[in-house]
Each structure stands twice: as structure tokens, then as C-alpha cells.
Amino acid sequence: MNTPRRTFLKLSLAAMPALQSMPAWARSFPSKPITLVVPFAPGGNIDVVGRSLSVPLSKLLGQIVVVENRAGAGGGIGTASVARAEPDGHTLLVATPAQVATLPQMFKTAYDVASFQPVGVATRTSMIVVARRDDARFKTFDDFLALARGKPGAINAGHAGNGTPNHLALLQLENAARCQFGAVAYKGSGPALVNLLGAQIDVVFDQVTSSMPHIKSGALRPLGILGPVADPTLPGVPTLAESNVGRFDATTYAGLLAPAGTPGAVIDILSQALKKALADPQLNASLNALGSFTESGDAAALKTLLDTERALAMKLVAEGRLTAN
């Protein structure tokens, strides 16, 4: 018996009590390739997380795991497609809590939090502000904030789309630093970074994961970490506390979700496979090299993150700070 098959059998046996109450069609799960829907364009943080997870999950579950990018509406298009999918565990969403909990607070969506069943938390990544290294205006985070305060709206700041964690981080920094940016929404971090590198915008609010290759190449400079804790992959880059700017935490968490109605035993198999995948040394090494860290949490932990994100979104909407436009 090969190792992947043995691991899969262990996962199935662990879920055996619930399997007995499942319909016959679900007892052979997974019976076909699994699709991980990434609701953003290639090159962003969630895309990196999804592709990194696909390899160990495929080995553990004994099926091909395909990553499919469905970008648009701040992640809403891809998220809605998973909400409509057959609840059999073969179509899953890789996302931050924002796509599930924030967007429905901003505009009418074909789904809400109840449309999904959390599988588990996968990663955490620092949110940063990055600028071109050759932009002499922004040598430090203090330089950046001074210009933002002195010339409201003058800094064109890209983010991954309205309602994304990147967008919420921008709004929170505006509130904390008492400044204003010229916000520019994109269909993911990838396109935003392309425009930043091409000098079409001034900065991008981004997760370390997607910006790290450009930081390592010397093309981009990280100005500040939008959270209370230093990032080991970015030595010397100041946190909010070190810059005396507020106390909010824009750290981005990514997780795995299934459509509501997915059988409990299937969720158990997926959750256990995710937990084992996150313990894979190779996965950890590849993610750490890009500035992301595994954050193994069960379905309850992901639900807590969803509830927290929803509360923040409701607050920003009530203040008139978070809108669809």
C-alpha cells in the first residue's frame, strides 16, 4: 500500500461514525478531482496559498486538486460560484473572511455567511504597504504618512478590491493616521503590483506573500507592517506600534470553506487533510520563504474570524467608510 493511500484511509476511518449516516454517493469521497476556487486573479496572496495547498492536499486525498481563478467584485464572483456549487466537498473556496463576511455588508450578494461551512484556517500573512524602491518620496513609513497627511488624496494607493482585507487595511490606516489616500481597486493584488511596478500608482496595500518576490528582487520597498507584531521575514520594517499609529491589526488569515449542506463526514475528512497538509515541512518552507505562515485552526476558529470580520465591516459601513464604490 502506498503512503498517500494509507494516509487517505486513516482520514476516512477517523470520520467513520459520521460516514454511516451519509448517503451512499458520499461514502466514497473524494470520487473525482477537487477544485479550489481562488476568487482573485493569479499572483496574489490567496492564489499563492491555494496553489501551495493543492499539492499536499492532492497527495493526502488521493485525487487531483485543481486551482481555478474566478476574479471580480472584490472576490464576490468566485465566492458566489462556490456557494452555488454542489455541496459534496469537491468544490471548495480558498479565501479570507472578507469575501464571505464583508462583501454581503456592502452590497447585495447571492450568498452570506450561512451559505458556507468552514473547513479550517490555513495561513496568516502580514499586511504591508509597499512602494517602488526608486521612489525618493517614500524612504520610510514616516515619509509616507507625512505626505498622506499633508496632501490628502495625493497618494494613489492600490488594493486587491473593495471589501478585501487590503481595502479594510487602507481604511483603518486612514482612520488611525488621520489621512486620506486616492484608493484604486483592482481584481486582486497581482494586477495592483503590476501597475505599481509600472509607476501607474504610488503604493499598494498588500500581503507579504505576493509582494515578497518583488521585495527580494529590489524592485519594491516595504514601508510598514499594518499590525502590532514584527514580521521575521521583514527585519527592520516598523510596525504600527513602532510608528505610533493606532493599534489595529490587519493581519490576513486565509481559510478553506465548503458550500453549506456539505455532509459532516466530508468536512471532517477535508479538515483532517488540511491539518496534515499544514504540517508538511515542504509546504511550511515554501510559504515561509514568501512571508506567509501556516495557522492551523479548525472550523470553529475560522467561524470566529468570520464573525470578527463581519463586525468590523458593519462598523465601517455604518460610518460611511466602506461602500461598494
Automatic annotation (TrEMBL):
SUPFAM superfamilies hit by this protein: Periplasmic binding protein-like II
Keywords, alphabetical: Receptor, Signal
Signal peptide per UniProt: 1-26
Top-level taxon of the source organism: Bacteria
Record family assignment: Belongs to the UPF0065 (bug) family.
Name under which the protein is recorded: Tripartite-type tricarboxylate transporter receptor subunit TctC
Lineage: Bacteria, Pseudomonadati, Pseudomonadota, Betaproteobacteria, Burkholderiales
